[in-house]
Sequence to fold (366 residues):
Amino acid sequence: MRLKHLALTVVLSIVPFSSAFAGEDVLNSGDTAWMIVSTALVMMMTPAGLALFYGGMSRYKNLLNTFAMTFVAYCLSSVIWMMWGYSLSFGPDIGGIIGGWDNLFMNGIGVDSLSGTIPTYVFALFQMTFACITVALVLGSIVDRMKFSSWIVFAILWVTFIYCPVAHWVWGGGWMGAMGALDFAGGTVVHINAGVAGLVLTLMVGKRIGYGKETMFPSSITLTALGAALLWFGWFGFNAGSQLAADGIAGSAFMVTNTSASMAGLSWMCAEWLYHKKPTVLGLASGVVSGLVAITPAAGFVNLPASLFIGFVAGIFGFFSVAILKHKAGYDDSLDAFGVHGMCGIWGALATGILQIRQSTKPEKG
Fold:
């Protein structure tokens, strides 16, 4: 009997070792559980966190419309992603530009399919939440100026023809990834992408009626502060989850994310205090988001001191982008999507290369 138990133990210990030695993906329940939680956290960021954050900053007459446009962006992106978005982003590479059609409607992927140590379905859902929030971020630049029906058309086209190719370039085996571009959780794919799109859309649709002539009060700073808190909470899944495993780098990404956000909130507050002679809740909340944006591409590559520096610069950089650059340049970025996400995303991407101390060991995406 003891010999049988010994033989069974030996067999069970050799089988997983052999699979790993052969380079086969092996399901890890801990990684899977963490990624399901991370996916839920990032999902909450769009129809809850971002809707409140943007809704509170918009004028009262546009509050419900802002919520509706955020919700519909999430719904549309979710459907597009499962129909063709995932395949275009993470399908077999075509010339370094786009993925193939092999996984159209999630074709060829089943419950036993794995991406690294997690089910491919979980990986696809996690990446879906990134597509959802990215297009919703663009909304911040054109609140008050676009019809609901026009926004629907824009969201469909933008996710398909802009987000999916850029995601493939960086994460899906495209030309930027091949060059060694560092983007741990979406500094380029999400924030620079959304910020620049928001700026272009702002210039195309023109300024709001009455802009610069009448005061446009936000509907509720309380809602904005609550939205910022939910974004902050969800961002732990956004950044730490991008390791695609429950390991030390995920823990480090969690730590530097919180530190950068806190430091940026303080530096924005101080810059605003010095420039406007008083701090505001809106400024503090915006500073936190600036720090979260800036640490996103760097989260898995930098240490604690670097995160303090990234957050400190992000808060000041974000404040002056919103308080000075926008007015000097003369564009009407309604809720400062470019000033916060575009400019701080650029800073974060540059800082990643300058301050990197480690290579991420995350499993291969796709």
Observations:
- Residues 6-22 have pLDDT under 50 and may be disordered.
- The first strand starts at residue 93 and ends at 94.
- The chain has twelve helices and four strands.
